[in-house]
Amino acid sequence: MKATVYDRYGWPDVVRVEEVEMPSPVGDQVLVKVAATSINLSDWECLVGKPLYARMGGLRSPARRTLGSHIAGRVEAIGADVTMFQPGDEVYGDILDLKGGFAEYAIAPESPLARR
């Protein structure tokens, strides 16, 4: 699948599109085929690495390679512990803890998602 990734903090020129491995949901996670995402302040802060709290989990380089904390899309697969959603459900939510919305598919915990 295609994803917009970055490996170091910086300006938008450090971002590129590349092929990455498709994520698989486990436990209470949901795999979402992303239909829409947003670009917001949290994405900018994580991209540039400022203020310092934006580097949580990755002081010298990003903890997660793919930005995108707000997503909307369709559930493709679910982990074994998911109870609220089934494949085919349309959902949206804030996945700031895992990020990954700037991709064709994103993993999200079940709890921050809602039906749309």
Give a topology summary.
Blueprint: E1 2-5, E2 16-19, E3 29-37, H1 41-48, E4 70-78, E5 90-94, E6 105-109, E7 113-115
Antiparallel strand pairs: 1-2, 3-4, 3-6, 4-5, 5-7
Descriptors:
mainly beta; 34% strand; Quinone Oxidoreductase, Chain A, domain 1; 116 residues; 7% helix; five-stranded antiparallel sheet; two-stranded antiparallel ribbon; single chain
Question: What would you note in describing this structure?
Answer:
It is elongated and about 40 Å long. The two termini are 24 Å apart. The longest helix is centred in the middle third of the chain and has 8 residues, at 41-48. 30% of the residues are buried. It has a single domain (2-115), classed as Medium-chain alcohol dehydrogenases, catalytic domain (Quinone Oxidoreductase, Chain A, domain 1). By secondary structure, it is mainly beta. It is 7% helix and 34% strand. The strands form two sheets. Strands 6-3-4-5-7 form a five-stranded antiparallel β-sheet, with no helix packed on it. Strands 1-2 form a two-stranded antiparallel ribbon. The chain has one helix at residues 41-48; strands at 2-5, 16-19, 29-37, 70-78, 90-94, 105-109, 113-115.
CATH topology: Quinone Oxidoreductase, Chain A, domain 1
Mean pLDDT: 96
Integer-rounded radius of gyration: 14 Å
**Structural class designation:** mainly beta
How many strands, what sense, and barrel or not for the largest sheet? 5 strands, antiparallel
What topology, given as strand order, has the largest sheet? 6-3-4-5-7
Shape: elongated
Number of domains: 1
The CATH class is Alpha Beta
State which percent range the strand residues make up: 25-35%
State the distance separating the first and last CA atoms.
24 Å
Number of strands: 7
| Helix-strand sequence | EEEHEEEE
What are the low-pLDDT stretches, counting only 5+ consecutive residues below 50? none
Number of helices: 1
Please identify which CATH superfamily we are dealing with.
Medium-chain alcohol dehydrogenases, catalytic domain
